[in-house]
Amino acid sequence: MEENMIIASPKVYLVGSTKFDKPLLIQYLEETGNQDFIKDVEESGVDEMDICSFYAKLCYKSLTIGHNNNISKTRSIAKNFINCIESGHGSVMEHATLNFVAENVS
Description:
Structural class: alpha+beta
């Protein structure tokens, strides 16, 4: 094995299956340095909108500032959800049913 090779341990989080699992989502956010998104989730109070917005932001690393160099500000969950609908980004709506996050995998 090469001396500079890093071996990652994959993790999978089941963050929702018909019922939103907020504690596991918060665990994921804490472990990945996205604590600022926790406040958005707590303020929103609409589980389905939270999880859809989470996945829309996750695919662009735009949950919080500092994970994507092209992102200098973030939208609230409600504004992000409305933007998804208005822009036709409807695929994130499927996440209100069954959700996994895979971390440290290629």
